[in-house]
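In response to the reviewer comment on reproducibility (Comment 2.3), we provide here a single inverse folding case reported in full, input and output, so that an independent group could reproduce the run without further information from us. The structure tokens appear first.
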């Protein structure tokens, strides 16, 4: 396990390796995860949660070739969507790199599934998935819509609302809903909890 996580050190690492926009996004996702953890009284370890959120896009700016090369070289298990759309590879590649650095399985699993969601993502992954969508720098939501979403009583309700919005967007764009996202949608519709 990654001992003595220092989120300040992780922030500095990201500041040096990411664009200013991606760095701001990562910090905002971390702040949103902490807000959700408090809001829903989930009692997740705040240092692990913060590190997970900060590092979720650590390789998001790698080139398609770098992501594909890493995934192939490390024999990562990939979904059909990830094979078809290499931009999604930043999630499994990031999780693999964090695992190699000794981050906990919970952190790595959350990062692994933050792009398309999964019934296997756990509570930390649930918060990361939601926060990645809700963070205040994202322009697809106005403050009022964000507040309405945050008023939902359970994090699973909030995740389901996010999934519904993402489904509507994908349908409008003529894009396919991922298998993992559809499985998560059905799980939550049937009352599933993390």
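Designed residues, in position order:
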């Amino acid at each position: 396990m990654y001992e003595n996580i220092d989120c300040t050190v992780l922030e500095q690492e990201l500041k040096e390796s990411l664009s200013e926009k991606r760095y701001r996004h990562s910090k905002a996702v971390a702040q949103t995860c902490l807000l959700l953890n408090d809001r829903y009284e989930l009692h997740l370890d705040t240092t692990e949660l913060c590190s997970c959120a900060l590092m979720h896009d650590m390789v998001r700016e790698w080139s398609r070739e770098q992501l594909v090369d890493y995934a192939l070289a490390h024999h990562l298990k990939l979904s059909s969507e990830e094979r078809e759309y290499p931009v999604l590879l930043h999630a499994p590649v990031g999780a693999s790199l964090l695992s190699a650095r000794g981050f906990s399985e919970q952190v790595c699993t959350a990062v692994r599934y933050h792009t398309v969601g999964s019934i296997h993502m756990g509570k930390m992954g649930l918060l990361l998935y939601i926060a990645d969508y809700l963070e205040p720098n994202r322009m697809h939501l106005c403050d009022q819509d964000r507040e309405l979403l945050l008023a939902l009583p359970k994090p699973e309700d909030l995740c389901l609302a996010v999934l519904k919005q993402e489904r509507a967007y994908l349908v409008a764009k003529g894009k396919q809903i991922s298998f993992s996202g559809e499985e998560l949608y059905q799980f939550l519709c049937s009352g599933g909890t993390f």
